[in-house]
Amino acid sequence: MKRVYAREEYCLGCKLCEVYCVTSHSKSKDIVKAHKLEEITPRIIIESKDNISFALQCRHCEAADCTKACITGAIQKDEETGIVNYDAVRCVGCWTCIMACSYGVIRRDEYGDKVISKCDLCITEEEPACVTNCPNSALEFEERE
Amino acid sequence: MDYVIIGNSAAGIGAIEGIRKVDQEGKITVISDEEYHTYSRPLISYYLAEQVSAEQMKYRGADFYQEYGVETRLGDRVVKVDQDDKLLALESGEEINFNKLLVATGGTPFIPPITGANKDNIYTFIKLDDSKAIAQEVEEGDIKEVVILGAGLIGLKAAEALVKLGVKVTVVELADRVLSAILDQDAAEIVQQNLEAKGIEFVLEDTIEEFSGTDRATAVKLKSGQQLKTDLAIIAVGVRPNTELVQDTEVELNRGVIVDDQLETNISGIYAAGDVSEGYDLVRGSAAVIPIWPNAYRQGLVAGQNMAGASESYNEGFVRNSIGFFGLPMITAGIINPEGDGYEVLSSKLLENNSYRKVVLQEGKIVGFIYLTDIDRAGILTGLIKEEQDVSQIKEELLADDFGYLSFSEEERRKLLWL
């Protein structure tokens, strides 16, 4: 499946990927309203230290540990798209998936308190917003072996 | 091929999904003495606290058994396992043949020999029916005070739920701290203070000697001599592998049903998974019962695949828990209170926001950790335990707030992140 891959040698640490991730998952789809009026947790992690940085999202693993650890059945891998999805209604915020994910890319929702937040590859869009809006092509969306 | 699974929780469901990865045709029968559609046991405290509905308890969708082609015998009970004829006798009188059998019977709460422990209002707390019965008592009865024996995961989740329902709770615990199996002294103190701030009272280093009252317990007498009034009591001192069914067979038992790395017992064609089983513990390097949900599902999944003819191994078992009380989360794994030589313990200072981290190393590898309050990205450590990664080069980074993949060398990072 197509996944997002970081190229740390090109990443400027500008965090625009995070800004557009939030916008993409907003109701308004408006960059200002999304940040000022809506309460949205980014679904991306940015690591940054000593002039090196990169962005990381859910790897949508083939044998995803989070889906196996989830105590409610809220996290499931869609066998057709390959995307690891979660059902916010069934999530109780026990954070077992955070314990299970060795990439550390599942976040606690900063506003809802009780549910997780993770990358859905912007499934309704042509490509993930973080990739589209990276000014330096430090994120690639492609099929790799 | 006839597959029979005894047990309808995490390991049983894992096995169904595992079998169907390999064999879409074989007949699968799942038997459980509980009448319910598969549900999440860890959610029973959420159910008691009225945070999830019966519908939300379901671990898989309503059409799960149909979708996976599973015949169910729910609310029935296996009374005899005949390993030679590969035949199960059910309480209803039905007999079921199997070619491959999975024993996924979970655990049974341990009831210590306390005088009066059989009274009507004394419960254990591991099944949905336990939660329903307690909820009904609280709803209908005059339940103002509850005593819980045991400050482990089950006891404290029950305590939290009851406090949310407005009940006064006292927890009696033999150890000198709460959650002694998964926390160290420092972390346990923070958690206890947080629970006390919510109104839970603790009596540590003490235990219940007697429940007094007629049909219903009205008071408990502690070993120290202290007396506590109670309208209902919960015993939560531990769970033991429910091995009863195979005790009359030649299936080899220790604490649990002994399984190899393919989850098969010493009897060909009979497998075990989940809380009833005793498999390999990665961090201890020996056999152990690892009674946690993610392990049960994983074992079930691998057992199911192997029952259907695959040859998968599972060697990634170790204790790990993510749990929280009144919004204070913690993730802990492996060995957190090491005894003996050969361990190196790194621990952070306790921060004002109650954040605390501890990592236990052995021969340069992580064998245990505690993340309290700031639990984000704890899974990176879980992964490092699983991969048995040598972290001696990045030891100084392990407790850092921003510990992540930039803490590794570029080469390691690219490897670990598939970049």
Q: What Rg of chain A do the Cα atoms give?
A: 15 Å
Report strand % of chain B.
Answer: 25-35%
Question: What is the makeup of the main sheet of chain A?
Answer: 2 strands, antiparallel
By secondary-structure content and strand pairing, the structural class of chain B works out as alpha/beta
Our Rg estimate of chain B from Cα atoms comes to: 23 Å
Question: Oligomeric status of the shown chains?
Answer: heterodimer
Number of strand elements of chain B: 26
Largest beta-sheet characterization of chain B: 5 strands, parallel
**Hey, roughly how much beta strand do the residues of chain A contain?**
15-25%
N-to-C order of helices and strands of chain A: EHHEEHEEHEEHE
For the residues shown, what is the average pLDDT of chain A?
Answer: 95
CATH class of the largest domain in chain B: Alpha Beta
CATH class of the largest domain in chain A: Alpha Beta
CATH superfamily of the largest domain in chain B: FAD/NAD(P)-binding domain
| Beta-strand segment tally of chain A | 8
Supply the number of structural domains of chain B: 3
Question: Biggest interface in this structure?
Answer: A-B, 39 and 44 residues
Instruction: Fill in the CATH topology of the largest domain in chain A.
Output: Alpha-Beta Plaits
Q: Looking at the structure, what is the overall shape of chain B?
A: globular
List the SSEs and their pairings.
The complex is a heterodimer of chains A (145) and B (419).
Chain A (H helix, E strand, L loop, with lengths): L1 E5 L9 H9 L6 H6 L8 E5 L2 E5 L8 H5 L5 E3 L6 E3 L9 H5 L6 E2 L7 E2 L11 H4 L6 E5 L2
Antiparallel strand pairs in A: 1-8, 2-3, 4-5, 6-7
Chain B lengths: L1 E5 L3 H13 L4 E6 L11 H5 L15 H4 L2 E5 L3 E5 L4 E4 L4 E3 L2 E4 L3 E3 L12 E2 L4 H13 L4 E5 L3 H12 L3 E6 L11 H13 L3 E4 L3 E6 L3 E6 L4 E3 L2 E4 L3 E3 L15 E2 L11 E3 L4 E5 L4 E3 L4 H15 L12 E6 L2 E7 L8 E5 L8 E7 L2 E8 L6 H8 L23 H7 L3
Parallel strand pairs in B: 1-2, 1-7, 2-3, 7-19, 9-16, 10-11, 10-16, 11-12, 18-20
Antiparallel strand pairs in B: 4-5, 5-6, 8-17, 13-14, 14-15, 20-21, 22-23, 23-26, 24-25, 25-26
Helix pairs in contact in B: 1-7
